Amino acid sequence: MDTQTNHKEGMGKLFIVATPIGNLQDMTFRAVDTLKNVDVIACEDTRTSRKLLDFYSIDTKLIPCHDHNENKAAQQILDMVQSGKDVALISDAGTPLINDPGYHVVHLLREQGFEVVTIPGACSPIAALAASGLPTDIFTYLGFLPRKGKARTALLTRMQQAQDTQVFLESPKRILKTLQALQALEDMGDRPCVVGRELTKIYEEFVYGTLDEVVAHFQAHVGRGEMVVMLGAGASKVVDDAMIQVALDKALESGLSASASAKQVAKNLDVTRSRVYALIHPKADEHS
Ligand code: SAM
After folding, report:
1. Atom 10 of ligand 1 has which residue's CA nearest to it?
2. How far is the C-alpha of 97 from the C-alpha of 102, rounded, in Å?
3. For residue 227, what are the CA distances in angstroms to 130, 175, 257?
4. At what angle do helices 241-253 and 258-269 cross, to 10 degrees?
5. Where are the domains of the chain?
6. Which residues of the chain have pLDDT under 50?
7. Residues 92, 50: Cα–Cα separation, whole Å
8. CA nearest neighbour of 87 among 54, 64, 57, 56
9. CA neighbor of 222 nearest in space, from 175, 159, 155
10. Which of 25, 80, 122, 178 is a Cys-bridge partner for 21, taking CB atoms 3.0 to 4.6 Å apart?
11. Residue 166 CB–ligand 1 contact under 6 Å
């Protein structure tokens, strides 16, 4: 694979531009500048984008790029960039490609060695996560969950087992059903859960609690508006070597033999005896 760092002389560029997720003021100066200066803006729905562009007095030509024409649009954008035109890609709201069209366009331009510039800004899952109060050091973004079948069951189980914050999108129609499906899995009711609703808009709201409490909230209040759901990790079931060592030291100090200590620690921490033995050998010598 070629690494690509330089702009191709005489060719245009593709700009991936984030737009607001509700509050029109959440445009960066650079986003406005870029949309004013490119030759063409590719957008999901020209009527939706026209409102944003009018707000910022941007009269750049729009072309459609949505789920139903993306391959064709990608070729059209490639041709324009090849002929020296700069093109911006936006979606109806937020960051393009994040559960929005654009992947085929970016992939094609990258494959052909053209420059793709990112103009960051609003992105609902990130905006929600940042204000959720849940751990953000490691998280998994799942987009929209599959609506039914094995794929849905597999994903819900994966979320149950996850040790990092899970972030996904859900429609107000399905929010209660999805939260209840998670709640029905073992040991889930106490997990921290946050739903960020109508972010950056007048009725922005964060529903925060345990999964049981958040389910109760949506049983009492009909879900409305756009939503991001976040689920915190359960208590860690991962046993590391340091934990085994502490338990082992205690068992040995209590006077148990090496093999009795290994047996007891393996049973109490639900780990294999061979894992405990791997740590026990130097100690076994001291206590034998
Ligand atoms: N690309 C977008 C982004 O960066 O936010 C996401 C597009 S996806 C098609 C639309 C979904 O994003 C909505 O159904 C909702 O789950 C979430 N979303 C978008 N705007 C939101 C907002 N203001 N508040 C909460 N969720 C939002």
Report:
1. 99
2. 5
3. 14, 8, 57
4. 130
5. 14-122, 125-231, 241-287
6. 284-286, 288
7. 10
8. 64
9. 175
10. 122
11. no
